[in-house]
């Protein structure tokens, strides 16, 4: 028999850096100017006569040129005011800057040799507004997203007369958000098609599509081609999206070879990426400026970042654009609103990164020598976290920014985790192969009993960890068994309607029976389906009906609508919400009709003056929008009622004017103060969008239902101690799967608690 000794409990705190291998050497903002405003895109220019470098910066209010001769003390040389607009993009040809915007004025052309800023024209001969511009090595300007046609590409010659371009042709198959060209090929992000397109533009009057391919999040914003022309890299301007890498050597069979995120799990949004030799430099909104090594495009490795914005996550704040092509090697970035007054700012960076250290290899079964797919490969103690998986052939690629000797952990469900030490060198591919020993499977037995020790039939049992998930029902005697189980630490949850759900964690090795005791009572955090009924006029074919599961968050104008998580620190990650899917706000919310959630029946007929019953739960309501297309302003509600089989009484009503919208709110009621207690009690939760045009944003949530005999606090399940296990470490900080007998180990829980344990056998 194994005994687990609990040695220590303390909060676990993580500190993060704001920069890595990028140093801020200077900055400039326009706070002292009357035209101070938010920033947009950026480009750079070097004066061929003086050698001075300049930042060309778009602001909402116009176009600014900033001298970088002393990067620590930049200063503005001149400013040209323009129509106020969020979008302003800049490129150069020779000594001329070409600026477009989405507010009007056509194409601003500026002679940069006149540093008084007095030599410029606004040319609206061919378009009035546009979203983006690129100028290729032949002096052809590509105007993207203009107010001409569908907003495809206009081709302008800027070589013959730089101050008065001429039209060469168009490609208008789709709206283009951004793009670039190299040689005879134009590469464009067709954002609403969710694909990038390669177009032969050797004949500007008759462009031809060469190939196209979808991008990871199918909202293709930006694209850039590698220096050798064999690969392209894309961004999708959506929350939680990726940089994608693609092999384009065969236009008829374009292949995605890798994808990567700057800050996985943060929901941050990438914007524009540019190829700079063996690196791509990307503006990543709230994550700032990032740098990835793309020497091997099938193995993208982040080597640097500077997080310039104080916030994080989903949102169009922070870094708009980054320019990495100045001859000095400086990288300059334009900030939308990172200045202390919430307006634009120019940031100037010095490089501190080098080529990455590359890691490759194969992983096989130690007994059969067969290659293993789906093996997790992690390099420990790196500044930027990394995690790779072996492919179907058992191969993996990985790497890190800094040379050093690292422990590399190989783990797969059903196998003993292996750790191999290797020295990784910058610019060098290191080969590390591994063989994993399979674990021995066993059959685990358990019983769910009440407080008197009697078995509970039909109880739900969930036993899981990061590798395995077992869901079973107990038999008539409360017993259950799990075949093909493997030794390890597991979260164990059991429950049944009429009992308080139990959640715990334990080390299971098959040596003894798993005994779970449930107390009588009514509790539901929706880990299991206890039979709540969903009704109302919204059907399963429509979005927005009550659904049980792990919610995905949405937000609108800074207000959370669909919750991103259930109530924290209960047994599991589930709750009831009106549509589990996230996406764009309003795409999966309540529309047109009502949706009703009704609990199973519970018996409170034994109440007396000395035996009261209190109902507690967490509710969520968000309501907004409206007034679109002739619809009404938002004025919807969420109600929670109690029913005794004869009468129904509303306990709670939330409306669009409630002060606590868009958050989980704890509620508790002495039920007998509202309604006669019977053996036929139910709770009913209802919300609706009553605008017949479906113009309102309506989201509801319900979690942690509980009946208690004493006044509850907003402390959740009393059987829940520390929560779900995040990871298990040995005393060196190395992650392990299977603790060794008589050796201390550390358990880190998702709620931040940490325990030090020892198993004595």
How many distinct helices? 0
CATH superfamily of the domain at 22-351, by name, is YVTN repeat-like/Quinoprotein amine dehydrogenase
Number of strands: 61
Helix content: under 10%
Distance between the termini: 6 Å
Note the beta-strand portion: over 45%
CATH topology of the domain at 22-351: Methylamine Dehydrogenase, Chain H
Uncertain regions: pLDDT < 50 for 5+ in a row? Answer: 1-17, 715-723
Mean pLDDT: 89
Task: Output the radius of gyration.
Answer: 30 Å
The CATH architecture category of the domain at 22-351 equals 7 Propeller
Instruction: Find the structural class using helix and strand composition.
Output: mainly beta
What form results from the Cα inertia axes?
A: globular
Briefly, what CATH class of the domain at 22-351? Mainly Beta
Biggest beta sheet summary:
6 strands, antiparallel
Q: How would you describe this protein?
A:
With 761 residues, the chain is mostly beta strands. Among the domains are: 22-351, YVTN repeat-like/Quinoprotein amine dehydrogenase (Methylamine Dehydrogenase, Chain H), CATH 2.130.10.10; 533-708, Sandwich (Jelly Rolls). Helix content is 0%, strand content 46%. The protein has no helices and 61 strands. A hairpin with a 6-residue loop joins strand 21 and strand 22 (243-247). Mean pLDDT is 89; it is low at 1-17 and 715-723.
